[in-house]
Amino acid sequence: MTKKSIVVALDYHNKNDALTFIDKLDPDMCRLKIGKEMFTLFGPDLVNDIHNRNFDLFLDLKFHDIPNTVAKAVTAAADLGVWMTNVHASGGLAMMQAAKQALVPFGQDAPLLIAVTVLTSMSDEDLVLLGINVPVFEHVLRLAKLTHQAELDGVVCSAQEAKLLKSSFGQDFTLVTPGIRPAGSDTGDQQRVMTPQQAITAGSDYLVIGRPITQAVDPLAALKAIYQSLHV
Ligand SMILES: O=c1ccn([C@@H]2O[C@H](COP(=O)(O)O)[C@@H](O)[C@H]2O)c(=O)[nH]1
Fold it and tell me: How far is CA 140 from CA 63, 105, 155, 172, 217, in A?
């Protein structure tokens, strides 16, 4: 575990607010993630702004479409030079294989490619509403198995499933876990949560943390408090 195991989710509506925060950090302190909101608002210019500051960037667009479209989207993400990008595992095996194949021309420069299993905002009850009548952990395991078969680098899951997935697919299968909540913080819309310490103990490789940091009165102090809780 290093400081760079923390991926700060920059879900800001205002680009200046995001850059003001980033300018208080240095690239050895954490990695950064932008998702659908910031990429839709600010596009590749924001990716370049972040890369010019030398941060590793996770482009969290969760592609989910037919194989040809996803392969082209993943190619476009790799062209941006991002550190990590992702697809939805529920897009299926052929889609994930097409995404993986699209990265072959990038060789060593290819981003890590991971797949979202079950969103951390979802519970067993939410799956039932989708007609999926198994506990979340079973569906996560099923989707992670498909992801492993497609030879992607790992999955997005809750830290609650980390122990199960590491024992099923090995230490090299990368686990990226949102739904991280320091003790006492607001869970918001997240349902499958763990504290940073619990997540690391369970086997998470990367802890994605957004609002507990970005909506704190002092985001830098909130990030430093998380390091302290993890003794890094
Ligand atoms: O299953 C998932 C997949 C992605 N996310 C994203 O992670 C961050 C979490 O932010 P918090 O503010 O710490 O809740 C956010 O950008 C989500 O889009 C996720 O939460 N769960």
Answer: 18, 30, 9, 18, 35
Quick: pLDDT tens for 173-190: 999 999 999 999 999 999
Phi, psi of 48 (to 5 degrees): -65, -40
Range(s) of the domain holding residue 204: 3-230
* pTM greater than the 0.95 cutoff: yes
Which position has the token pair 């869970």?
A: 187
Residue 141's CATH number: 3.20.20.70
Whether 223 lines ligand 1, by a CB cut-off of 6 Å, is no
Cα 224 to ligand 1 centroid, rounded to whole Å: 20
Determine if residue 92 is labeled as part of a ligand binding site.
no
- Catalytic positions are 60, 62, 65
